[in-house]
Amino acid sequence: MTDSRPATRLPVAVSGVGVLGLAVLIAPLIALAWAAPWSRIWELLTAKPAMQALGLSLGAATLATLCAIVLGVPLAAVLASGAIRPTRLVRLLVVVPMVMPPVVIGTALLTLLGRRGLVGQYLDAWFDWTPTYTFSAVVIAQLVVAMPFLVVSVEAALRARNIDAEEAAYTLGAGRFTTFRLVTVPEIRAGIGAGAIMCFARALGEFGATVTFAGNVQGVTQTMPLAIYLSLQRDDQSAIAMAIGLVILSVLILIGMRGRWLPALS
Amino acid sequence: MKRRRLFGPVLVIAAIVGLSVSMTACGSDDGQSIRVMAAASLVDVMDPLSDAYGQQHDGASVEVDAAASSALVQRLKSGAKADVLITADTATMDQAVADGLAADPVVVATNKLVIAVPKGNPAGVTGLDFFTTAGNRSVICASEVPCGRAAEKAIDATGGTPQPISRAVDVRAALGSVTSGEADAALVYQTDAASAGDQVDIIEIPNAPVNEYPAAALTDDGKDFVNLLTSQEGKQILQDAGFGTP
């Protein structure tokens, strides 16, 4: 799909600063590629701790994204319909995790689900189970940090949607749930796809909340960003290799999803 | 009309920028400011040390960059600037010296590992054997950071293998796992345990390995700070925080 808007003539000052803005974003990536140990990259990436961390990151981010879709799409629908008032306040609460330092989110999760937490103390007492330092903790941390990205995207899609088809469905006697499932959700699938990818990408890169709430257990909670952080302190070569791997993976996912799920981005 | 609408936001942004500039400036207005890279376990004692340095140098301020020693050396390697480097073990400082980042380190303090448990010791921890039993909620530092190497050394000496539930990214994270109650025991430095006050109980380890804190001046400005650390006044401050001094 090509951009259908007519080319506009930008003032030189705007295009110049725009290029500078682009440089700010891609210069660190270029430097990383420059510093990468390309000759050993495959060997470093396929080392056991790196593979474990990669598998864990992908698994946790996928689960967190699925949970975010299941919980986030209905939440976005509630926000878009204005069913809970005041909507503006609720929307503000939904995006708060986007501006909170992830370490604080991790601490907040400890005070909720930790062994002495508001809810966690009962999990410990009744089920003798604590999420801290488990794989569940990684998924929960990623979910809280990343779900707002999905909700914001889906709500925008819901607000911009054409409701003619829904009206028609009601007129033809479809129930509310059937209409939501068969008409509304397909109508906004591009928004869900874009939101899910933002959510997945954010979950994949999550560090602060994970290290605080889920700790650092190799093969259980040590995701790629944690493995990168720790290996930076011992052997920067493997850290840079893992970082490159993460970047390549994210780009591949974006490209792969572009056609089917992301008409908005392609 | 457009112009008037812009005025409000611009005023707010200008106020925020002005405020943040003036707040940053306050710290470095008087005297020469220096930057000290200090191991995470020194973070509490850096405040009184900075005050003492300021009094000696008409209000000069000390910027403290605190992190795991290995992370600090990594930062220096990537070109970060500092006047003083203090690490939590000699191995990390030796690495910095070998890489040509620091020279002539002097040991300014000593510390040792202890077992920190939540107040009241709910799991009834008695010694290092708690750390070698799978299923126990024990935490030690990751082997990449000095407190992790010290912990492994201490546990190895008992003939056991560490079976921690998680490996903390630095010593403060290990302590945090105990103060939050998530872990029943963590191996931390004596001074870190002391900084947690009433929140933790301390169990001494027989023949605990002692680790030394070498300090190196990286610039001429940094020499005065290292001199302060080895002076009577500096030693007193370090001892008050629970460190041993040479």
Automatic annotation (TrEMBL), chain A:
Key words of the record: Cell membrane, Membrane, Molybdenum, Transmembrane, Transmembrane helix, Transport
Subcellular localization: Cell membrane
TM region positions: 12-36, 56-80, 92-113, 133-152, 239-257
Protein name: Molybdenum transport system permease
Membrane topology: Multi-pass membrane protein
Pfam families in alphabetical order: BPD_transp_1
Domain ABC transmembrane type-1: 54-259
Similarity comment: Belongs to the binding-protein-dependent transport system permease family. CysTW subfamily.
InterPro entries associated with the record: MetI-like, MetI-like_sf, ModB_ABC
Listed PROSITE patterns: ABC_TM1 (PS50928)
Role, per record: Part of the binding-protein-dependent transport system for molybdenum; probably responsible for the translocation of the substrate across the membrane.
UniProtKB/TrEMBL annotation, chain B:
Record keywords, A-Z: Metal-binding, Signal
Protein's gene: modA
SUPFAM superfamilies, A to Z: Periplasmic binding protein-like II
Organism superkingdom: Bacteria
Residues making up the signal peptide according to the UniProt record: 1-27
Family: Belongs to the bacterial solute-binding protein ModA family.
Pfam families, alphabetized: SBP_bac_11
Signal in keyword set: yes
Protein name according to UniProt: Molybdate ABC transporter substrate-binding protein
InterPro entries: ModA, ModA/WtpA
Keyword Metal-binding carried by entry: yes
